Amino acid sequence: MMSWQILHATGRLRKHEPQISEALHEAIGLLSRYFDIDLDICVADSREHSNPILGIGGGALSSSLLVIFLDPDHAGIRETIAQDLLAVLAHEVHHCVRMASVKDKTLADRLVTEGLACHFETEITGRDLPSFLPAETAKAWERYFAVMQPKLNDCEFREDALFLGASPTTLPRYAGYAVGFGLVKAYLSCGHRSAAGSAAVSTADVMSAFKR
To answer: I want to staple 27 with a disulfide (CB 3.0 to 4.6 A). Which of 6, 86, 124, 164 is the partner?
Structure first.
């Protein structure tokens, strides 16, 4: 069972509560058709953890807990709740499902986990790309993958540089997500199940599909 709670310490989400609640109710109804999972969903006020363009972000904290972050002062927050909350929630729910059986240790593990969540997001929304991933970044994923290849087996790596754009002269923001999306696309194109049905797939299986 998935349940949710809107956190009101700042009070800034109260005016959006009816819209958030309606969007969550519909999203959980849809996602429950894919995964039978006991999950607490918290919605919190946090500009710092939200995508600056969309005003929303997310984080999977464990196999039974995730957080959706919203910036209530974002100019397009109502449109974001209507158009992107489902996408972000789907992404984080997939992470929670995968956490129950697969533990990320290496950079390769993380790339695959993010790629699977990105593809599940698109399976749910019907979009070509995840909500936050620019098309030009997605297209150049193999170039970014070449930069990351020497680090694939590393257990310690700079997430801010590889995923969040802290070294933009080398890798743009969201490069790691683009690489994961590309790797999983190669895996799924080999006739494998959907991302929804591949939540427990091994990193090795995904990587071997790209090498063929």
So the answer is: 86
For a pLDDT cut of 70, what percent of the chain falls above it? 100
- The pTM score is 0.95
What is the CATH number that goes with domain 2-99?
3.30.2010
- The token pair at 198 is 């591949």
From the list 211, 147, 205, 204, the residue with the least C-alpha distance to 176 is 147
Residues in Cβ contact with 212 at an 8 Å cutoff, skipping those fewer than 6 apart: 190
**How crowded is the C-beta side of 17, counted as CA atoms within 13 Å?**
10
Domain limits, CATH 3.30.2010, in the chain: 2-99
Cα separation, 92 vs 147, in Å, equals: 26
Give residue 212's pLDDT band: very low, low, confident or very high (50, 70, 90).
low
